[in-house]
Every structure is written in C-alpha cells, then in structure tokens.
Amino acid sequence: MTRQDFRIVGQSVKRADVLEKVTGEGLYTGDYAPAGLLHGKIKRSEIAHARIVRIDASKALALPGVKAVLTHADVPRVLHYGSPHPRSASCTRDQYILDDKVRFWGEGVAAVAAISEEIADEALDLIEVEYEPLPAVCDIDAAQVPGAPLIHGVGPGGNLVIPPVHVERGNVEKGFAEADLILEGTFEGGRPVPTYMEPNVCIADWDGSNKLTFWTSTQSSFMVRGALAEVLGLPLNKVRVLVDHMGGGFGAKQDLFQHEFLCALLAKQTRRPVKMEFTRRETFVAGRSRHPFRLWLRQGFRKDGTLVARDMKLVFESGAYGSHSPGVTNVGTASATSLYACENVRLNGRAVYTNTPIAGAYRGYGVVQTYFAIDIQMDEAAERLGVDPAELKLKNAVRDGDIAPSGHPIIGDGLPACIREGITRFDWAAKRAQPREHPTNPAIRRGWGIGCEMHGSSAYPGIKEQGNATVKMNEDGSVTLLTGAAGLGTGAHTALAQIVAEELGVAFESVSVVHGDTDVVPWDIGAFASHTTYLVGSAAKMAAAKVRASVLRRGAERLQARVEDVDLVDGRVFLTANPEQGITVHEAMGPSRGIPAEHLIETASYMPTKSYSFAAHFVEVAVDTETGLVEVKHVLPVHDIGKVIHPIAAQGQIEGGIQQGIGHTLTEDYVIDRTNGRSLNAGLVDYKMPLSMDMPHIETVILEAAPDPGGPWGAKGVGEDPIIAIGPAIANAIHDAIGVRFHHYPITPEDVLKGLRAKEET
Ligand code: SMO
C-alpha cells in the first residue's frame, strides 16, 4: 500500500461530535450555569443619532435584585478593535464600549446585572436617558452629500470609513475603444442578516486570583482574549476564553461585540458570574448584517464575446461603525479583477458610515455583492451578443496562471471545469431549448440560469503562524489533536481529525479533538475566511507527520530494524518487506530499553498563501405571473474545492449556502426606516428566511479539478463559496423565464409583478 492511497481522507466518516449533538448532551455556551449566575441585559437607544445629556441609573440600582448598572461613565474609554490579527487592517477601531453618543437605533447605552432576567428587564425600563437629538443620516446618498453631518470624528472624513480603495490594471479607455458592445448598469442589495441558530451569548466569571474565565460563542477566541485583556488591563494568561459547541457563526461571530465587554465588566464589579444572551431580535439590532450596497458597472465586449474592459464603482453601507468594512471593501473591490478575465480594469470601492445597524463580516465577505452584479451583466452581454450565457462565461472564465484578486496566480482550470461539468450534468442546452410556458399551468413560466463564483481561503497571506495545531500521541496509542479553530457546526473538527489520522497512519476513531480553550490550545487566528481545513488542516498534517516520524523511530527500535525499513498503517508499525512482522502503535509507544512510557507531542505552524475555490450554479425557477412568486425548483451546484476531505460535510456546506443564498435573493431584507433609522422587521416574524419547505431539489456535484498544493493533499475551502453564485443564477433564471432583468436583491413578488407590468407597457 502506498501513502497515496487514502484510507480516511475522502470518506464521509461519522462526525467526531455526532453523538453529543444528536443526544443533546453537547454543551453550548448558554448551557453553562456557574453557581451564583447573574443575568445581564443591555438598554438600547431609541433614537438613531444623539448625544446623551443625562443618564440616571439610580432607580434601576434601587430595584431589589439588581446588582450593578454600567453607563458610559463607568466603563474604560477604549476604542475596541475587531481585527482577528493584530497586523491586519480588516477592521476599524471606532467604537467605545459605551459612549456618551449613540450612532444607531438599538445601540447599547447602559447594562444591568440582576438575579433574574425579569428583574434585569425591569431595571432597563427604570434607567432614565435624556437625549439631545442629532441629525440622522440613514442612507448612503445622504451620508455622502458635501456638508453631511459627520457620524465619527475618526476616518478620512466625509463619512468614509477608510480612504477609497482603487485598483487599476491595463488601460480601461483603450479597452472600451476596442469594444463592440458596452453595457452599463447599477446594482443594489439589501441587508440580509446571518440567522444562526444560536444567538450571541457569553458568560464571564472571575476567580480569586483575578483571572477572567469567559465563555462565548465566537469564531475567534484568541481575538476575544486579546481585546478583553487590553480593555481590562490584564496579561493574556489572566484571560481564559472558552468556546464549546456553536450554533453557527457565518462570519458575524468573528467580530467583537459590545455585550462581551459589558459582560466581563459587570462580572468584575459584582464579583459574580454574569451571562448575557441576545434575544433573536437583538441578533438583528445589535448583530452584524451583510453590507447593503450600490454598484455601478460598465463592461465592454468584443463581437466574439471577449471581455475587454471593466469599470466599477462600488459603495458599501457600513452602518454606524466600521466593523469589517475595510476588509469587506478591499475584498469586494479586488474580487472584480477576476472571475471573468479582463486585462483592463478600473475599480473603485468605498464604505460609508450611516446611522443604521452595523454591517460586518457575513459569509461571502463583499464578494457576494460584486459577483451578483458582474454575473448578471455577463448574462445581459450574452443576450445582446446572441450567444449562450454558459458558453460566454466559459469563454471568459479565469484559468490557470491568471492573476487572482490576491495577486497570486490562479492554480488550475477550476472554473472552466465547473462550468463544463454543469453544462453536461444539468443538460443545459436541452433545458434551455424547452418552452418557457409550463406544460399545464398557464400562470407559470419557467427559466434556467447560471451563476459563477470564486472565493479565496485564508485571510492574510504572508502573515506567519496563522494556522497552528498540536498533535499528541498518548502512551496507549490514542491521539489528541489540539486546535484553536472553533467548530461552527460545519464538521471542520472531523475533517481535521481525518487529516491527522490519515497522515499519522492510525484509525480515525483513535483521534480526539480538543478545542476552544485558550489556556490549552495553540494560538489560532479564528475560524473564518473558509480556511479551517486549508490552514489548520495543513498545520495538523505537519504536526502529525512529525509525530509519525517519532513513532516510526520507536517502532523500528523495538522491531530491531532500520527506520527506513518500517511503515506505519492503521495503527501498526511493521517491516515493509514483511508486513506480518509488526507491533501496534501502543506497543511502539511502550517501555523500551527501560525507558518509561511517555507521550509524544508536536506542534506545527503553517503560513498560508491563498487558494481559490470555484463554482458554477445551474438553476431552474418557476415564476408565477399572477402572484409574482418565484420558486427555485432545481439547483445543480458544481464546486471545485480541490481534494475533498469529507464529502458529506462539504455537501452540507453547499446545500446550506444555497439555502441562505435563496433567502438573500428572494426574501431576506432587514429593513431600516430611512427617515429615522428605526428598524422595521427585527426578528423572524417579519423577516422571511427560507424554510425546509422552500428548498429546491439540489444535486450537488463536487469536483477535485484544481487541487491547491498549499492545502492538505490539495484541499481548498468550501465555507463561503456556495452562497455567492446562487444569487445571480436565480436572477438570470428569472430573466430567462419572464424577460425582466432585476439588478437588485431581494427580488420580491411585488418586484416581479411590477417588472411584468412595466414590460407589458413597453
Ligand atoms: S465572512 Mo467569513 O467567517 O470570513
């Protein structure tokens, strides 16, 4: 057996945490209940922009059962940061824990700790706040008008979060001069909110040695540790952050939140553990949404379909604070250098403050918006040129050696492979040749569309030691993997255990994963940017290889053979020439020449480059021309993710991403009243997420078309990709069905009916 034959990687093994999850035994942050637990609650502003002239907590403090109240005067005046890496520029530092100003409706102005949730809620009502209203700027146009009221004193001015991002390659004017067809359009998108099952929650507990233990549902435990230590003036070893099971993160939980600091401070003041748990409503009001956007796009094509020039101006609405706007703006802008190759590009991206809830990181991180626009305009170009859209996309798709948004060359022909495979599997040409009329229901029109995407794994190429893993071979032959990567619910820990078992040469069942305790596990940048398998997987593979070498050495010694002459497979060290003659890993680890049994422990760090995964989504929709309802009937997503570690987990990621993407495209929008900044539909009553009944038939195809040598055996990311291509695929399919082009999301039934009416009138 050669080492190239996979035994565990590529198998859909039973997930490592499956029993705990299905029996309900697994603990989530909210399940912890230290003795004497107090309940923390946040009083939220009922005005979008104001100065606080007076805040009086005396009545609240006098309420029996209330143990502490914090207002802006009681907390350290520190601008906190949300940057997952101290050397990255993804995030801003523009938010105080509590301020004497409010910048959006729903921002926290005070916090309470009480012996019950009910008393804490009652206390919130007793806190008196007197506001001096300031003019509220609630849309990107109002924010950019010269002389508009400024929301922050920091930043480059004009309500910009950062200086505009500018990317230019080639000669755009020359490109347009060579074009036979020039298309121009403006695209917009709303404010989808990542609706994780587990709302944000944390518990703070101080011990007698002035050490803080902090449970929180976060994607970035070490970032939380760093920020809390800074605010509290503690060394890092006096803050222990614990993350147990998580009910989803979707990017939003890679940020730092006001309630996390307040929880730690309330616990410090009361000397009792304090828990803060968002209501579903608070996940909307005080969570992080995708950035609403407006994007102007102009592209030029030759008659033969070659894309020759692209000019783009993109504006993201950041909301009241910057959060991940710098990163999202950089990534969203740079992504327009790619997907469809274009030598001449001029791209401008900006992020603008408004007095609305905070937009942040959300699965797809700026790329969703940009590729929505590009992919719809490619479809329009195909229509105008009289060619098949899938063929036009295939012709222009980025290929091996083209420059990726990160500046690295693209490895392999992943995107063309996805498009080609989908054309065949979906039977694209035959489907598009069918009548658009439904065979039996005259109100229904059918349409078929394609959308494409690419997305990078790993956030900060070149920053060292982002991915770390420790592998321990215990003296009985069992193996422990220690990782700082949070398990968001995607199965990433299972994939890591598979990688370790495969590399080491032991059974999958003999590897257990320890995670989420910053006192124990090696430093980790956080579980985001689709990189846990790629980045931490690589580190785990390296650490496992080191342990393997030591086990082989010990085994050889016991077998009285040379190390070159032994192999380790399935937990057995044996003579390569005579596999019958061997010992178990347990025996290899045992006492040898009087040396007592001991474990082996190895840590490895991995510095990533950046790998790109690709996908093409093929979609069938049915549009009801009487009600305007769009039903997604069938999706055939084709993804290239390099070497597949766990096929069913990857498929789950893809299906989940498609469900979220359907929501974004058709129904989900957290609506803010643009006159006063109030939110109109915070919560799941008026905000329509797709349910299982809304799910189409999904036929997932996973290719290993373009493995990336930077990942374990060529594995790449899959976390964010599936949410990106589905949106434009649906919009293009709607156009195919009814001949109406939509340049925005969500595309609601009202929009469809209006579009049909406008078409009839012309
Ligand atoms: S939006 Mo992601 O967790 O980088």
The name of the CATH architecture of the domain at 32-134 and 197-248 and 252-285 is Alpha-Beta Complex
CATH class of the domain at 32-134 and 197-248 and 252-285, please? Alpha Beta
Low-confidence stretches: none
- The pLDDT mean sits at 95
Radius of gyration computed on alpha carbons: 27 Å
Helix content: 25-40%
| Range of strand content | 15-25%
The total of helices stands at 19
Distance between the termini: 69 Å
Q: How many beta strands in the DSSP annotation?
A: 30
Cross-sheet strand order for the largest sheet: 3-7-1-14-11-12-13
The CATH topology of the domain at 32-134 and 197-248 and 252-285: Aldehyde Oxidoreductase, domain 3
Which structural class fits the helix and strand makeup?
A: alpha+beta
Principal-axis shape equals globular
CATH superfamily of the domain at 32-134 and 197-248 and 252-285: Aldehyde oxidase/xanthine dehydrogenase, a/b hammerhead
Small-molecule components bound: dioxosulfidomolybdenum(VI) ion
State the major sheet: 7 strands, mixed
What do these coordinates show?
By secondary structure, the chain is of the alpha+beta class. Among the domains are: about 20-25 and about 460-605, 2-Layer Sandwich (Aldehyde Oxidoreductase, domain 4), CATH 3.30.365; about 30-135 and about 195-250 and about 250-285, Aldehyde Oxidoreductase, domain 3 (Alpha-Beta Complex); about 135-195 and about 290-395, 2-Layer Sandwich (Aldehyde Oxidoreductase, domain 4). The strands form 7 sheets. The chain has a 7-stranded mixed beta sheet, with helices on both faces. α10 packs across α11 and α17 (about 645-665) crosses α18 (about 725-740). The longest helix has 28 residues, at about 530-560. The chain is globular, with a radius of gyration of 27 Å. The mean pLDDT is about 95. The structure holds dioxosulfidomolybdenum(VI) ion (SMO).
